[in-house]
Amino acid sequence: MTQISAPPSPMPGNKPVKFFARREKIYPRKVSGHYRRLKWLAMIVTLAIYYLAPLIRWDRGSQAPDQAILIDLPARRAYWFFIEIWPQEVYYLTAILVFAAIALFFVTSLLGRVWCGYFCPQTVWTDLYIAVEHWVQGDRVARQRLDKMPLCLEKIWKKGLTHFLWLLIAFCTGGAFVFYFNDAPTLWQQLLSFEVSHTVSGFIAALTFSTYIMAGYAREQVCTYMCPYARFQAAMFDKDTLIIGYDPVRGEPRGKHKAGTSWEGHGHCIDCTACVQVCPTGIDIRKGLQMECIACGLCVDACNDIMDKINLPRGLIRYDTEQRIESKDSAKNQSPRIWRPRTFYYLTILCLVAGLVIYGQLNRKPFELHALHSRNPLMVKLADGQIRNGYEIKILNKTHEDGSFSLRVENLQDAHIEIRGAGHLSPENLEVLADHVGSFHAFVSAPAQKDTPSDIRFILKDNQTGIEETYDSMFISRETK
Amino acid sequence: MTDHHNHQEIDEISGVETTGHEWDGLKELNNPAPRWWLWVFYVCVIWSVGYWIIYPAWPTFGGATKGTAGWTQFTKLEREQAEIAARQTQYLGRFHEASLEDIMNDPELYSFATAGGASAFKDNCATCHGTGGAGGKGYPNLNDDEWLWGGRIEDIYQTLLYGIRAPHDDTRISQMPAFGRDGLLTRAQVMTVADYVSGLASASSGNDHPGYTIFQEKCASCHGPEGKGNRDFGAPNLTDAIWLYGESKDVIFRTVYDGRAGVMPYWKGRLDDDTLRQLTIYVHSLGGGEAGESVNDSDFGPTIPDAGQ
Fold first, then answer.
1. Is the pTM of this model over 0.90?
2. Interface test with B, best of A17, A378, A380, A417 (most B CBs within 10 A)
3. Which residue has the higher pLDDT, A88 or A283?
4. B102 shares contact with chain A (CB less than 8 Å)
5. Residues 6+ apart with CB under 8 A from B35
6. CATH superfamily of A367-475
7. Where do the domains of chain A lie?
8. Which of A206, A293, B227, B283 has the highest local Cβ count within 10 Å?
9. Above 70 in pLDDT, residue A223?
10. CB B54 within 8 A of CB B67
C-alpha cells in the first residue's frame, strides 16, 4: 500500500483553504455608447414581441381560435399564423428546434455570442432589472454604498421600491406567458375579474417567482453555471469568429499615464478598469476570451469613451476576430473570412431543414387516416365460413369545414366493409366535423386468406375533393397458436 | 471504543477533523452537514407535525386518530365515486328515459351505452365469454353472427335478463338429450348420426347418408329437417361454420351421446336495468347484432337469410 502524502500544508497559523468561493455581488456601472444603444433596441424589440405577440388576431373561421400564436393544450392544437399543428405533426416542432439550434450555431460561428449578449431572455430581463436598480438606487458606487449602509429609511424605501418594481415586471412576465396558451380576450376578462383557473394562476406564480429569482438574484450565475449553451458555444468559435477582444499588442504594458507625456514605452491601456466596472458578468476582458463573457459589448463602449477622453484612437477593446487581434500590424487590416467550412456546413443544414419544413407544410394533407386492427378478438369466423376482422378507423379532418369521406379496402378479394355505430352508417359516407377526429368501428369480412396475416390497404377518399389517403394494415384469417 | 476516538486528527489542508477512518490512504473528513440541508430537514420535521394533526396518524385501540380534515381513503373513494356518478347523471338520465331505438340512433347515448357496457362486460361476463367476447369451448362467441337464441337487440336483452337454463321463472330452457347415455340411440346409431351431422356444413351428407333417417326421426324436431336449427329452442344451426363445442366428429359424438346443457346466468335484479341495457347494446355492437323489431334498422348488422326461423 502506498501512502499518498498530502500537499504541503500552508503556513501554520494560516486559515485553512476554503473550497467554496462565495459569489461576489456585481454592481455594473452605467455606460452609454453604440452597443448600449443596440442593447436597448434589442430589449425593446424582444420584450415587445413577447408581450404583444399573443394579442395578434388571425381569422380562422368559426371552427378554430382566432389567435395568431396559440398553443391550445386542451384541444391539442398549436397555431402559428398560417400554420396549424396537430399532435401527430409534432415533428414540425422538432424541425423548428433543430433549425433554431443550427441557426444559433451559424450566427455564433460568425458573430460570436450575440444571442447571449442581446437576445437571450436571461440577458434581457437581467438588463431590465439592472436598469430598474440604477433608476431607483443610482449608479454603481451609490448602489455599493447603499448595500453597506445600516438599515435606515432611505435604504428601506429604495430597496423596497426596487423589489416592488422587480416583482411587478416578473408578474407581467408570467402574466404574458399564459396568453400563449389561452384565448387572449377571454383571459383578459378572467384576469380582470379574478376568475382564472388554478393552472393559469399557478403558471403566473411560477413564472413570476422564476423571473424574480433569475433576473434579480441569479443573474450572471445562470450563464456561467446553469446554461449549457454558454459552455458549448465555444465549440463554434474559430480564429475568424467575431469576439470581444482586448488588443494586448496595443494596450500592453498597461499602466497609469500622465496627460501630455509621451506614450513611448507605454501601452494604450491606462488601467482605468472602466471595462471591468461596466461588465454585467464581472470579468476582466483584458485577461482574454473567457467563458463568462456574454459578448454584450458594454466594455467596448466603456473603453471607447475613455479613449476619446485621452485622445487615443478607439478600439482598444473591440469586436474583432481572434486572428486580427492577436496578429501584428501586417494582418490587422485583413478582412475577416466569412466563408469557412463550418459556416458553409451550418448554412447547408439550415437550408435543408427549412426546405423540409416548407415542403412538409406545402404537402400537408388536409386529412389523415388511421386504421388500428382490433386485437381482442383478432379475427372472428362467421356462420358462412367467412372471416371478419375489426378495425378502429380514425379520420383526422384538419380542415375547418365538415367533411364526408368514403372508405374502401384494397388487396383483399371480395372484401365487404361494414361500419358500426349509432344510426345509419355506410362506408361511402363517413361524416367528420371540421377540425375533429372521427372514430368509426369498421368490420371487414372476406373469405379466409392463404397468408395470415395478409397485407391490406385502406383507402380513404374525400368525397368533395377526391383526394385520397391510404393506411396499410393487415387481415388475419387464422388464430396462430 | 477504539483508540482513534481518543485523539483528534486534524486534516492539514482543510483544517477539518477526520473520522479516523482510512481507506488506501484516503481519510474521511468529519465535516458537519451543510447548513441549508439541516434547515430543509428541520422544516420537514415541523411540516410533518401538521400531518399528525390534519390526517389520520396515530394508532389507538379504537382505530387511528381521525385528523382534523376528516380524510380517509374511504372518504376519498366515496368522493371520487360521487364525482363519477355526477358526471354520469347527465347521460344516465337521458339514457334511462330513452328507448333502445332512440339510443341506437343517438351517437352520444350510443357511445355512453357501449362504454358502460364494455366496462360492465369485463366485470361480469368476461369470466366465461372472454374480455373481447370471443367466448370459448361451450361459451358462445358474441362477435360472430350465429345466435342460439337470437341476435336481435330484444333477444339479447331477454337472454341477459333471465339467462338460459338459469334458476329464474322466466328463463329459457331447452334440452339437448343424452341420446346415447339414456339409451334413446345405440352407440352405433350415435356414431352414424354424428358422421351425418359433421358432413352437413360441407354439404357432403346427403339424403342417402345412413344417418339421414335417424336425424329426421330424432333431431329434426328441434334442429329442423335441414339441420338449420331453431332459435325458439336454442337449437344451433348445424350447417354453418360455427361449432360451440368443436367441429371434430369425436366432439359431435360426445354431444349426441351425453347431451349438452350450457347455462347462462340470469342478471335481472343482480344488475340494474340501465346496466343491462348498456350490456345489451354493447354485445349487439360487437359485430353480430341483428336488426330487430324495436330497432327497425335495415342497415344495422348482417341480416341472416333465415333469421325469421
1. no
2. A380
3. A283
4. no
5. none
6. Immunoglobulins (2.60.40.10)
7. 23-364, 367-475
8. B283
9. yes
10. yes
